[in-house]
Amino acid sequence: MPQGAAGGRAGDTGPFPGIRRDRSGTTARIMGGVDSRYDIPADDDALLAECQVQTFRGTGPGGQSVNTADSAVRLRHLPSGITVVCRRERSQYLNKKACLERLRRRLEEHNAALDVPERVFTAKPRAAKARQIEAKRRRARIKRHRARVQADEE
Question: How far apart are CA 154 and CA 152, in angstroms?
Fold first, then answer.
């Protein structure tokens, strides 16, 4: 997932992850939490109903047909705040279909990430600590021998 301000999601523009500010910066709203699970509708129309759809001109190679037709699609899933963009195809319908597939995959990844158990931190083994200290001693010895020759020693 792309990182945004303060290590949150890409759309997080507030001071903490999960907080979004509007463009003027006056109001902030708390998004659906990072730990909330989202129901993914099986029907594309139902998923599309939960989204804000924007169409725009897809730039890049392709000539006049790309520069004049609003074929690129941006879908923003309102409950989660996840945004997906597709501008690969010349058809708005195909781009919207690809966006829905990407959004469905991103929501599944988000829900799957919630099933991963929390990491249990363990103490560093004594042998690992000893290896680390020995490596530091070796490094310090190398650096000590790098000392420049003083002017009076020349």
Answer: 6
Give the pair of three-digit tokens for residue 13: 């523009």
CATH number of the structural domain 35-115: 3.30.160.20
The answer to whether the Cα torsion of 123, 124, 130, 134 is positive or negative is: negative
Distance from C-alpha of 3 to C-alpha of 89, rounded to nearest angstrom? 27
89-148 pLDDT per residue, tens: 888 999 999 999 999 999 999 999 888 888 888 899 999 999 999 999 999 999 988 877
- Give φ, ψ of 54 to 5 degrees: -125, 140
Q: Annotate 47-114 with DSSP letters as a single string.
A: HHHTEEEEEEPPPSSSTHHHHHS--EEEEEETTT--EEEE-SSS-HHHHHHHHHHHHHHHHHHHHHHH
- The residue extents of the domains of the chain are 35-115
Ramachandran class of 62: left when φ > 0, alpha when ψ lies in -120 to 50, beta otherwise: left
pLDDT of residue 59: 77
Least confident of 64-73, 79-88, 101-110: 64-73
